[in-house]
Amino acid sequence: MKGKMWAGRTDGITDRLADDFNSSIAFDARLYRQDITGSMAHAAMLGEKGILTPSEADRIIAGLSAILSDLESGALAVDPAAEDIHMFVEGELTARLGDLGKKLHTARSRNDQVALDLRLYLRDEIAALIDAVRSLIGALTGQAEKNRDAILPGYTHLQRAQPILFSHHLLAYAMMLMRDVGRLRDTAARMDVCPIGCCALAGTTYDIDRRFEAEKLGFSAVAPNSLDGVSDRDFGVEFLAAASILMMHLSRLSEELVLWTSWEFKFVELSDAYTTGSSIMPQKKNPDMAELIRGKTGRVYGDLMALLTTLKGLPLAYNKDMQEDKESIFDAVDTLKSCLSVMTPMIATMRVLRENMLAAAQKGFINATDLADYLVKKGMPFRSAYKVAGELVAHCIASGEVLETLPLAVYREKSELFADDLYEAISLKTCVEKRSSEGGTSPASVEAQIAAVKEFLKA
Ligand code: ARG
């Protein structure tokens, strides 16, 4: 193909397949706004420093602004034959302004340009993702508040363990997501360093003002080493790591929804809007959205692995391998946004089947710990109390009874310490209410957790 902007050292005539292979326009076209914004700041700086005349800078900025509005209105389409978005914008500018357009790339390289574009892109996307995660935290907290006192079995090893409040369980996810917001914010803070002006790798002989440009673009610092500035994709890795952890949380919540909506649990009913039917089995209501979120977690982990692997063998500074960074990052952004956009309303609209939760909590002897604690409070050493409680559970299993209704006489055969107050001590309500340690499942502890999450959401 003819007409390469970089023709000179070579005739610029490349094989068509090599062109296709080399091109990134198919995916980096989405950076057009960031690319143009960066170029406008660059032209302003060139004008400010007298590298371009003020009128040249103004005309370039006006030209870029016109390209941007034409792209947004649809009057101009990105040319799929362009090598990448940077070449497309510069080519279009030159087509419109003639030789003046060719001055834009003074004291700049595509290497610092692409490093800038990706940071500008992620800065906006991270802000949008933080909002989306906060909405999900809000939905979880809303359900926790609506179902403050619903009791269900808490599990370990997926075996019924101890009674807990459903609100306590939901808030555990709110806590995870609050950490995710923290990780995304950390990523954005460390990414807040402007690479433009690093040029190809070594800086430039022009008297540029990097801080002017950084400030114009809303960065609080400039990359202090030009080699690092153009080669650094740590922010992409950090973002993908934060994205992977966030997806892992969404996946665990999805897994709970899949379990909870099964007939075996039936703790929750999802709104019809977030379920599907089967093409053959008329009775089915499948939690496809939750399953897909769980499934898509794998691809985001893949995105992280892909970028880490791409970067691991690269010598300084820019290498074309780095063009591979974008698809992983875009894929993770798109996947997270779509997962969050479905998860939040799915949580907000789910119906909590409290009676089923309570019924499950009444089976499975989840108050056995409290039975042992009852004896301990009356003076028996814990290990002995544990054994007595275990024998009583075994007795109940053999006779088809439950601890709540087992006659006092049977209890007293095992220990004289048992008295009438034992029934109150092992009621599920007591079991929950007594776990009032900080962070525990008692209504008071959960209320404090709700307050902490709401405080977080207010800030
Ligand atoms: N499309 C390239 C990328 O995404 C832009 C930078 C190209 N730089 C270069 N020296 N060829 O990484």
The major pleated sheet works out as: 2 strands, antiparallel
Query: What is the mean pLDDT?
Result: 96
Shape: elongated
Structural class: mainly alpha
- Number of strand elements: 6
Low-confidence stretches: none
Radius of gyration: 31 Å
- Main-sheet strand order equals 1-2
Beta-strand percent range: under 5%
Ends distance? 55 Å
Bound ligands: arginine
Question: How would you sum up this structure, described in words?
Answer:
With 459 residues, the chain is mainly α. It folds into 3 domains: 91 residues, Orthogonal Bundle (Fumarase C, Chain B, domain 1), CATH 1.10.275; 249 residues, Fumarase/aspartase (Central domain) (Fumarase C, Chain A, domain 2, Up-down Bundle); 99 residues, Ribonucleotide Reductase Protein R1, domain 1. Helices cover 62% and strands 5% of the residues. It contains 19 helices and 6 strands. The strands form 3 sheets. The chain has a two-stranded antiparallel ribbon with strand order 1-2. A two-stranded parallel sheet has the order 3-4. Helix 8 links the parallel strand 3 and strand 4. Helix 3 crosses helix 6, helix 4 crosses helix 5 and helix 11 packs antiparallel against helix 12. The structure holds arginine. The site of arginine has 10 residues, from helix 6. Arginine (ARG) binds next to helix 6.
How would you describe this structure in keywords?
single chain; mainly alpha; Fumarase C, Chain B, domain 1; Fumarase C, Chain A, domain 2; Ribonucleotide Reductase Protein R1, domain 1; two-stranded antiparallel sheet; 62% helix; 5% strand
